[in-house]
Write a structure and sequence with these properties.
The protein is an all-beta fold. The protein contains no helices and eleven strands. The radius of gyration is 13 Å and the shape is globular. 28% of the residues are buried.
Length: 116
C-alpha cells in the first residue's frame, strides 16, 4: 500500500508559477514510476509528466519546456514545478505511482486555476 498526499495547488495569474508536491508513504521501496496527471472539466484525465526510478523523465508536449518533474533523494516526494502557466493548464492535478508488481495508487488531487 502507498499513501499519497498532494499540496501546492492554488490560483495564479497567467505567466505565473506554482510548485506541486506529493509525499508518498507506505511501500515506497516498490515504486517504479511517479507521475502527475491532470483533469480539466469535461475532459479526460491526461498524463502530464513522469519520473522513473532511474531518473528518466517524460513530459506531455503541451508542458515541455514549462514544467519540470523532480523528486527528493529519498524518492518519497515528487514535485512538479510549473512555470509560464496558461489558462489551459487549469485542472485538478493528481499524483500517481506505479509499483514494480503492477499496483498503482492515486492522490486525492489538488486544484490549479490559472486566470487570464
Amino acid at each position: 500500500q502507498v499513501q499519497l498526499v498532494e499540496s501546492g495547488g492554488g490560483l495564479v495569474q497567467a505567466g505565473g508559477s506554482l510548485r506541486l508536491s506529493c509525499a508518498a508513504s507506505g511501500s515506497i521501496s516498490r515504486i517504479w514510476t511517479m507521475d502527475w496527471y491532470r483533469q480539466a472539466p469535461g475532459k479526460q484525465r491526461e498524463l502530464v509528466a513522469t519520473i522513473i526510478r532511474t531518473g528518466v523523465t517524460n513530459y506531455a508536449d503541451s508542458v515541455k519546456g514549462r514544467f519540470t518533474i523532480s523528486r527528493d533523494n529519498a524518492q518519497n516526494t515528487v514535485f512538479l514545478q510549473m512555470n509560464s502557466l496558461k489558462p489551459e493548464d487549469t485542472a485538478v492535478y493528481y499524483c500517481h505511482v506505479f509499483q514494480v508488481e503492477g499496483s498503482e495508487y492515486w492522490g486525492q488531487g489538488t486544484q490549479v486555476t490559472v486566470s487570464s
